[in-house]
Amino acid sequence: MGSMTKYMANLEIIEWSNQKVKVSRRRRRPRLFVTVHHTGNVSVNVAQRTTSAEIVQFLEESRSWIQKKLIESAVRISQLKRFSLTDLTTLPWLGEELPVRIVPHKFARGQMQKCSSEGFTIHTSRFDEDSLRKLLRSYYKEAGSNYLSLRASTISEKTGLEPATLKFRDYKTRWGSCSSKGQVELNWRLVAAHPSVSDYVIVHELAHLKEMNHSRNFWNLVEQHCPNFRQSKQWLKDNQLFFDFLTENKEF
Ligand SMILES: [Zn+2]
User: Fold this and answer.
1) C-alpha of residue 143 to centroid of ligand 1, in Å
2) pLDDT of 187-236, one tens digit each?
3) 234 C-alpha to center of ligand 1: Å?
4) Ligand 1 centre distance from Cα of residue 62 (Å)
5) Cα-Cα-Cα-Cα dihedral of 45, 50, 52, 53, to 10°?
6) How far apart, in Å, are the Cα atoms of 222 and each of 51, 85, 155, 203, 234?
7) Ligand 1 centroid vs 214 CA: distance in angstroms?
8) How many angstroms is it from 7 CA to the middle of ligand 1?
9) Would the pTM of this model clear 0.85, i.e. be above it?
10) For labeling, which of 69, 158, 206, 226 is most exposed (least CB within 10 Å)?
11) Residue ranges per domain, the chain?
């Protein structure tokens, strides 16, 4: 996926209202816009020649909106910190929140199932955080890999972009990769997100089979097969914490 190093040289920080604001300058950026990420980071995208004074003025004009978003992200982060699998009630699957039922089971080593109309059922004799997390992760890994591999072959058929191999991995911050030998890897956690998001990542990695870079030709190819890719790309940027329930340990 996107490599950050390309833009690192342009990294610019503005101090505004006790807040570090990351400034990204792009040559063809038509207007200023500010993003408050779910992590509580604030960034602005501006054109190459926008001055610091103009940026600060823009931030001032957006002050109440930024503050509202910062409060929302602080609330979300504190909720995540308190999030516990033992009082789990719903889980995201293909972008939908499905109900979860935990059913005590005397003998079973533990098993998780999905029934399309009722959501998830977890049969288990062990209700501690670690055991539940293990069950959850192995379910998402297996069912997620199955779903994504079906989508990938459908998309390959449609686009003619066929990887040499397709593997599934658990990355914390990456969504996929494509090697020069045509080996594509996808993050199985993507199954939690809306299908348009995982489709975008699949198209993105398959497009690298033809364009091994992030050039304009590359993005044109992505857009050709995934016209609304910008929305999904932005969603992934803004929602890294969304996937935290699938981390191996409670790291956040
Ligand atoms: Zn890429």
Assistant:
1) 25
2) 999 999 999 999 999 999 999 999 999 999 999 999 999 999 999 999 99
3) 14
4) 32
5) -120
6) 33, 37, 12, 6, 15
7) 6
8) 14
9) no
10) 158
11) 5-82, 85-246
Rounded to an integer, the average pLDDT of 76-102 is 78
DSSP 241: G
Centroid of ligand 1 to alpha carbon of 78 (angstroms):
32
pLDDT, tens digit, for every residue of 127-175? 787 888 888 999 999 999 999 999 999 999 999 999 999 999 998 778 9
Q: What are the beta bridge partners of residue 104? A: 124
* Pairing state between β 42-47 and 19-26: parallel
**Is residue 40's pLDDT more than 50?**
yes
CA of 215 to the centre of ligand 1 (A): 10
Say whether pLDDT at 30 is over 80: no
pLDDT at 249: 66
pLDDT at res. 5: 41
Q: 216: which 2 tokens?
A: 């304009």
Tell me the CA–centroid distance for residue 176 and ligand 1, in Å. 8
What CATH class is the domain 85-246?
Answer: alpha beta
Strands 183-187, 165-169: pairing kind? parallel
pLDDT at 29 exceeding the cut of 70? no
* 165 touches 183 (CB < 8 A): yes
CA of 128 to the centre of ligand 1 (A): 38
Total residues found in the chain within this entry: 252
Q: Long-range contacts for 52-59 (Cβ within 8 Å, ≥24 apart)? A: 52/14, 55/14, 55/21, 55/23, 56/14, 56/16, 58/32, 58/34, 59/14, 59/16, 59/17, 59/21, 59/34
d(CA 215, CA 221): 10
